[in-house]
Every structure is written in C-alpha cells, then in structure tokens.
Amino acid sequence: MRIGLIIAFLALVALLYTGLFLKPREVPSPLVGKPAPAFDLPRLAQEARFSPAEMRGKVWLFNVWASWCVSCREEHPVLIDFAKMKRAPLIGLNYKDPRDDAVRWLARYGDPYDFSVVDADGRIGIDYGVYGVPETYVIDRAGVIRFKQIGPVTPDVLQKKILPLIAELER
Amino acid sequence: MKALARAFALGVALLAAGASAREAPLVAADEKVEQRLMRIAEELRCLVCQNESLAASRADLAMDLKREVRELIKSGKSDDEIREFLVRRYGDFVLYRPPLKESTLALWVGPFALLVAGVAGAAIFLRRRRATAAPTLSPEDERRAEQLLKGGEPK
Fold this sequence. Notes:
The structure holds 2 protein chains of 2 kinds. Chain A has one domain: Glutaredoxin. By secondary structure, chain A is of the alpha/beta class. Helix content of chain A is about 40%, strand content about 20%. In chain A, the strands form 2 sheets. A 5-stranded mixed beta sheet of chain A has the order 5-4-3-6-7. In chain A, strands 1-2 form a two-stranded antiparallel sheet. Chain A has helices at about 1-20, 70-85, 100-110, 125, 155-170, and strands at about 40, 50, 60-65, 90-95, 115-120, 135-140, 145-150. Chain B is mainly α. Chain B has 2 domains: about 10-100, Helicase, Ruva Protein, domain 3; about 105-150. The longest helix of chain B has 29 residues, at about 105-135. Classes of the chains: A alpha/beta, B mainly alpha. The interface of A and B includes residues 27, 96, 125 and 129 of A.
C-alpha cells in the first residue's frame, strides 16, 4: 500500500518535471510532409516575381523575416554564415513589413538571401502557418516541406538539423 | 434555344446580384457575418497568446486571421470548412475542441482516467481503514464499558 503510494507520487513528480521542459509555444506544424503552398509574389526591390514552383528540382530554404522582428536580428548572423556556405538557395519571405524598412534593414545588416519576396498583408504567411517570425522551412526537390524551424535558427539547429537534412535530401 | 435564353437571363440576374452586393453591403448582413465570426472565433485559439481565444485577442496575427475568417464567411464557406482551413495551416492546436483521435486521446481520456484512478484509490484506502480502525469489543469488554458509563465500579 505504502509502496504503491510512493510510486504514484514519483510518477506524478516525473510527469510534472518533464512538463517543465516542454515548449508549448512550438506548435508542431501540420504542413511538414505536405507540399509547400503555392503563391506568386513580387520580389523585394526587384521587378521580377517569384513562385515556389520555380524551385522544383532544388532543395531550398524559405525564411520568414521582418525588420520589426527582434529575434530575426539574433538569427541574422547564422543566415549570413549559411549564405556564405553556398549550400542551398535561401529565399526570404518579408512578412508584413513596410518596403523601405525592409530594404534599409538588409542594407544595414547584410543580405543573406538570394532574394526576398514581399508578403505585405501576411496572407501567404497564413498559408504557411506562420505565427511567430522568424520561421524557416526546408523544402525538398519535389516542393514538399520537410522541416520547419519555429523561432530563430541557431548555429546548433543549422549544424545538427538543417545541414544534415539538406545533405540527405540532395542524395 | 429557350433553355439558352433562360440560362442567359439567370446569368444576368446573378451578375446583377453580385454587383449590388459589392456596391452597398447591408448593415444587417454584415452584422450577421460579425456574429458568425465571433461564434467561430470563440472556439479558436490565438496562436500568439495561447491562452486567449481568437475572438478576444487583439494580436496582429489574430486580427489577420479574423479578416481571413470574415472573408471565408462572405464567400459562403460553412463553419466546418472554415475550421478545416485553419487546421490545415496550424494543426488541431487552434481548436479549443480538438477532434478525438490518436494524438489527442490522452487529452480527452486523461482527466477521466485520473478521476477513476483517484476514486478507486480513495475507495481502497477507506475500506482498509474501516477494516483496521474499528476494533470490535468482546462481550466481556462491552459489559464493563456499560458499567463504567453508568457510573458503577468496574469489576
């Protein structure tokens, strides 16, 4: 009887303890494993437009950013490093950002993107299930989302998740 | 020929209806849309401030999502279709009443399982206590106790 109670108590402690380290803010995306939603958006500070269909046959990264987003500053050096590796195309989704602010931000901190597309009213963000900028998607050759990073890409996430995944998808 | 004419007339009528709807949205109709929006949004979670419903939230994303839902209502989508639209993008997490399936089983059954376990535990505990905590008196002891209560000397 007493041992049963102690076991029950320890089980409860274990349950609550693991609960301390879960991240309720990271909602698993239902989009992983699904085709990346289609769109056709103007590029930032360029005449051309872009649609994800153009990237068929390539593994690429799609990064949601904004000049007003504080965590994007934190993530920015990691993206610059990634761009220097020339490992895969990196395309930005400039999310709900005044054009001038976005251009100035890139001029000031450096532009890691092949180019960015402009999602002025956040519609495409909703299609991609964006709820907290920055978010990053790894999209495979067939246009399927294979990974989603919610919040900034850290050097750790880049080294341990994104780079190995790119290598695997390119095989 | 007659059928063709009828189809044409119907097309014109529809176009006219569409045009008038765009021109001056009726206040009453809009209010209906808002009411439906609020009813749906009460049952949806705001993803930015997770303990708030979409209806109550003033977060930027919540406003955008409400705009999206409003447009879906206006385009004649059913409540289920609208919920489906959001679940496809954000997962079951947006629903305050998630569907019963494998991944949500613990959520639906858990509290009842805990309740049953608690009641069972309490029942077992009480039964054992009753078994040990109520010693019965022998007829001899009972007689002595009665005498003591009456104020007599125990023999």
